[in-house]
Amino acid sequence: MSGLKWIGATLGWSLGGPIGAIIGLALGSLGDAMSGKGGFLLGDGNPKNQQRQQRRQPNYRTRPNYRTQQQRRAQTTSGDFEVSLLILASVVIKADGSQDQRELDFVRNKFVELYGKDRANKAFKLFKSVSKQTISTRDVCRQIQQMMDHAARLQLLHFLFGIAKADQMVTDDEEAEINRISNYLGISSRDYTSIKAMFYNSSDNAYKILEINKTATVDQIKKAYRTMAKKYHPDRVEHLGEEHKKGAEDKFKQVQKAYEYLQKERGF
């Protein structure tokens, strides 16, 4: 499979809407053929045909009914997650007005960890092309929110904080951008605070990760741990592929560490 067609076979709903348009433009700038004997990615590279393809896609500005939304979310693939991650990562990296090399290295290294060197190189090539575009974060996030399940969206958020922290400090601009993305993705403030706490050092981080306050009883701590362990369990994203299941283990380990910390602090 030549060029960037490596990802074509794993794309589902992200072929359309604002995400499809962004990826199509990025691939066009790279001069990669969109179809042919090697397979397809986002149409056939002909602007007129791409426009016709886009017109056939659902209107992502209109929220679908619950049943339709659930049916579509069940179709999310590893490729859908990957291109969503590429686009949102490019937004966060530019949030503070510059692209820090450490953040770029983090993205590249994370891709290598998730996908292997060959696929990571191709993904990063696409990422650099995407990062040159002006992106409507709201439109992209609304498409993701409508089509991607909650566990996968939490995984996206965790990755974005990892990017921001790659240079050892999350700037105010970066945090504001991630918070805005989180709101657009339909992630609750409690879930946002929980994941954010995994990247900061403070005395109450363990409580924040478990989504409880310092006055919680031992029974409430145990209950919170069971709830959060279930929410962040890697099996929740196994439909995205083994590579993303492994990536979700970081969040799960943070929950375990928070619980163990409180066990020692409270003596139970």
List the helices and strands and how they pair.
Blueprint: H1 17-30, H2 47-55, H3 66-73, H4 78-93, H5 101-115, H6 117-130, H7 137-147, H8 150-164, H9 172-184, H10 189-197, H11 205-209, H12 218-231, H13 242-247, H14 249-266
Helix pairs in contact: 1-6, 4-6, 4-7, 4-8, 4-9, 5-6, 8-9, 8-10, 12-14
Structural class: mainly alpha
Shape: globular
Give the biggest beta sheet.
none
- The tally of helices reads 14
The residue fraction in helices comes out at 55-70%
CATH topology of the domain at 194-268: Helix Hairpins
Average pLDDT rating: 80
Tally of strands: 0
Regions with little confidence, pLDDT below 50 for 5+ residues: 32-68
- The string of secondary-structure elements, in order, is HHHHHHHHHHHHHH
Cα radius of gyration in angstroms: 19 Å
Please identify the top-level CATH class of the domain at 194-268: Mainly Alpha
Going by CATH, what is the homologous superfamily of the domain at 194-268?
A: DnaJ domain
First-residue to last-residue Cα separation: 56 Å
User: What CATH architecture of the domain at 194-268 would you give?
Assistant: Orthogonal Bundle
What fraction strand? Answer: under 5%
Keywords: Membrane, Transmembrane, Transmembrane helix
Domain J: 205-267
Biased composition (Low complexity): 49-77
Transmembrane segments: 6-27
Give a short summary of the structure.
This protein is an all-alpha fold and 268 residues long. The protein contains 14 helices and no strands. The chain has a domain at 194-268: DnaJ domain (Helix Hairpins, Orthogonal Bundle), CATH 1.10.287.
